[in-house]
Specification:
The protein is of the alpha/beta class. The protein has 13 helices and 5 strands.
Length: 335
């Protein structure tokens, strides 16, 4: 019987990197990473001590940035390598933020994941870099729970832009999806109206909450019961933790519960913090055409199934086994 099956839950320690809340198109990062590790506390503490001994920085708390410095490249490779402390005992969920925006706006208006992939891959070539960035910003503003200015402003902005792009680029694959989006404007009006009446408990653009559900499901194979130990986050209120636990069950996760800790107080969470920051940087470099082939290869064993990632070239590099397959939507966070 696997550990955690029908008995004491296995503890999984988690942390994230790249969280900008709902600002997915104007934040500091283009990739979100959520890492998890299954390592005994004593082993994790020994690994953190080893990282400190190898790097020898006077910093009180080490972060991924220490490992990502070129002078510490050997330590970074040791941490990720098959003989290192994380291999086979850690996983990471990666989300391409721009694709998350497109997936969510198409999901809101059409409920058609395939259309999201088409629009994402055809949009930039059709609209140009500036037009595509403008579209992503407008979609982000339409979906975000916070309201700036007039209530109808985000709806008017998004559909006004969509109609202009539709006229300017008629006949393209991207325009065909846009035409369907424009026809679905009543759904957007209903969505924004609902936000005015009741603030969203689970913002549709926040990647953290569905990533936690996915993490619980990933570690719950063979009937294993898991308990998540997560770095403290303002987003993780008691109400949202309750949503995670309720959502995890139908998603196939044997989630026994969840508690929040300070990363510096739990060496397992420190290792998850290292992995999340490292994975985000490696994946972002690959996404932007400056990937390091050695580091990307070292990251692959941790990424599992391809998640919410639309860019075809970098997706094939990070998840080579998924080449030719389309991105899989994450847990739907619209409530």
């Amino acid at each position: 019987m696997p550990d955690g099956a029908g008995g004491v839950p296995v503890e999984i320690a988690c942390d994230e990197s790249g969280s900008d809340g709902e600002n997915l198109t104007g934040g500091n990062t283009d990739v979100f990473a959520h890492a998890s590790v299954r390592i005994p506390v004593e082993s994790a503490a020994a690994s953190v001590r080893e990282v400190r001994n190898r790097i020898r920085s006077p910093a009180e708390e080490y972060k991924a940035g220490h490992l990502l410095r070129e002078k510490h490249r050997a330590v970074l490779e040791w941490l990720l390598a098959p003989a290192g402390p994380l291999h086979g005992r850690a996983r990471v969920q990666l989300t391409e933020k721009a694709f998350l925006v497109v997936d969510r706006v198409v999901g809101l208006l059409l409920d058609d994941p395939g259309a999201a992939v088409v629009l994402f891959r055809a949009g930039r070539p059709a609209f140009g870099d500036a037009g595509w960035r403008e579209f992503l910003r407008a979609a982000n503003r339409l979906l975000r729970a916070r309201n700036d200015g007039a209530p109808e402003g985000p709806v008017d902005e998004f559909f006004g832009l969509a109609e202009r792009l539709l006229r300017a680029h008629a006949g393209t694959e991207a325009a065909r999806v846009l035409a369907r989006l424009v026809a679905a404007r009543p759904r957007a009006d209903t969505y924004r109206g609902g936000l005015l009446e009741r603030p969203a408990l689970i913002p549709v653009l926040n990647p953290l909450l569905p990533a936690i559900v996915r993490t619980a499901a990933d570690w719950s194979g063979d009937g294993r019961l898991v308990y998540l130990v997560h770095d403290r986050q303002n987003m993780l209120t008691p109400e949202r933790i309750a949503w995670i636990e309720e959502t995890a069950r139908p998603a196939g996760a044997g989630l026994a519960g969840m508690r929040l800790v300070a990363a510096r107080d739990d060496p397992r969470v420190q290792l998850a913090d290292f992995l999340a920051g490292i994975a985000r940087k490696i994946a972002s470099d690959e996404l932007n055409g400056r990937g390091d082939a050695r580091l990307t290869a070292l990251l692959r064993p941790y990424t599992g199934d391809a998640a919410l990632w639309g860019d075809a070239r970098s997706r094939a590099a990070i998840w080579p086994a998924a080449e030719g397959a389309e991105p899989s939507p994450e847990i739907n966070s619209r409530v």
